[in-house]
Specification:
Helix content is 42%, strand content 15%. By secondary structure, the protein is α/β, with parallel strands linked by helices. It is globular, with a radius of gyration of 21 Å. 1,3-dihydroxyacetonephosphate (13P) binds next to helix 3.
Length: 359
């Protein structure tokens, strides 16, 4: 539905009053009404870099989810404030790894004698405390756009891909598996799933010793719903369709698709697509709808019409954005995201490692 014109007017007024004191970041999954006020849109990697590159902005208003705002707070200076317009905008995948579970998992690796040859690689979609754990243990953060580079770097630290070193990949098992198998050439047998709810992760010492990729048992509730059946059905229904999906989809879905990549990759692929070409997109609905509206000359389908919005991304709506901006104008900021100093230090070590990766 179109936004309330009074609210749009208030948003414009507040944005104008803030001027260059504020910088508004919008993730590709945000609602149109919010994207309209974003100074920059992007995937998680691009937005992290943008946040780090705005030292002049007093306020970074992050229209995205909690782990993204935490990362922005870690990457910006102390005098800058990062604001998340709705504090309830979390990520169900990030919630699947709690720091005490991660510490316990590491103890399991120590007991199995494999911790010394294991590097943690942690997906951006995780709490700051887990990023800090990663920094303390010599690992790196990655996003969906650089996971393959991060994995190569990590394996190089422990003897290379041809050796016996390992990666503990948290918390998205699918991104870890898809990247290791499709981009690094490891086999499915090299991957094991560590279930934090089971003693010892549900793995034997032998399985841990033989594994190259120890995948945390986490997944995205939105992307986990796309199936191979969706891909077969759309291919049958739409001639010459190109299927493009996010790497948080299950492995079989990624194998059945034609292209796989981050949200920014998907946006660029559709921008560059030929007029008249047909596409089926397997990612969050706000983005797919916006792409279809932006490219009326292309035939853009949703990979599964029963999969819908990311409910937490959707919590950031125009009323929350207006409330957050007006609070800044009034000098009484709401919803500031602050990571405690010790976690911020070590999480920054892991985030800086990601930013220093080649490419
Ligand atoms: P991107 O890094 O591709 O934007 O993905 C973030 C995310 O949460 C996908 O679900
Ligand atoms: Fe988290 Fe999935 Fe939503 Fe991305 S789409 S923020 S991974 S729940």
């Amino acid at each position: 539905a179109p936004s309330d014109p009074d609210l749009v007017e208030r948003a414009r007024a507040a944005r104008a009053a803030l001027g260059s004191r504020a910088f508004v970041l919008g993730h590709h999954y945000q609602r149109d009404e919010v994207i309209e006020f974003a100074d920059v849109t992007g995937d998680s990697f691009k937005l992290a870099r943008e946040a780090a590159a705005r030292p002049e902005a007093e306020f970074i208003i992050f229209c995205g989810v909690h782990f993204m705002a935490e990362s922005a707070d870690i990457l910006t200076s102390d005098h800058q404030q990062v604001i998340l317009p709705d504090l309830a905008a979390g990520c169900s995948m990030a919630d699947m790894a709690a720091i005490d579970q991660v510490e316990d998992a590491w103890d399991v690796l120590v007991d199995a004698g494999v911790a010394e040859s294991t590097v943690p690689v942690t997906y951006m979609n995780s709490a700051a405390s887990i990023k800090a754990f990663t920094g303390r243990h010599g690992g790196t953060i990655c996003t969906s756009s650089n996971a393959h580079v991060a994995l190569r770097w990590a394996f190089d630290k422990v003897g290379g891909l041809g050796g016996t070193g390992k990666v503990l990949f948290m918390p998205d098992q699918h991104l870890g598996r898809n990247t290791a198998v499709q981009q690094l050439g490891l086999s499915l047998d090299d991957c094991v799933v560590f279930d934090p709810r089971k003693p010892g992760g549900g793995l034997t010492t032998e399985q841990l010793r033989d594994a190259r990729m120890i995948l945390w048992r986490g997944h995205c509730s939105v992307h986990g719903r796309f199936s191979v059946r969706n891909v077969t059905d759309i291919r049958a229904a739409v001639p010459d369709v190109t299927v493009i999906v996010h790497p948080e989809c299950q492995h079989e879905v990624v194998l059945a698709a034609d292209l796989v990549g981050s949200t920014e990759y998907i946006v660029k692929a559709l921008d560059a697509a030929e007029p008249g070409s047909s596409w089926a997109v397997g990612t969050e609905l706000n983005l797919v709808r916006r792409l279809a509206a932006a490219h009326p000359d292309k035939n853009i389908h949703y990979l599964d019409s029963t999969v819908c919005f990311c409910s937490t991304m959707n919590r950031i709506d125009l009323p929350h954005l207006v409330w957050a901006m007006e609070s800044l104008v009034a000098g009484r900021p709401v919803n500031r995201i602050v990571v405690d100093a010790d976690d911020a230090h070590w999480a920054r070590v892991a985030l800086d490692q990601m930013l220093a990766l080649p490419g």
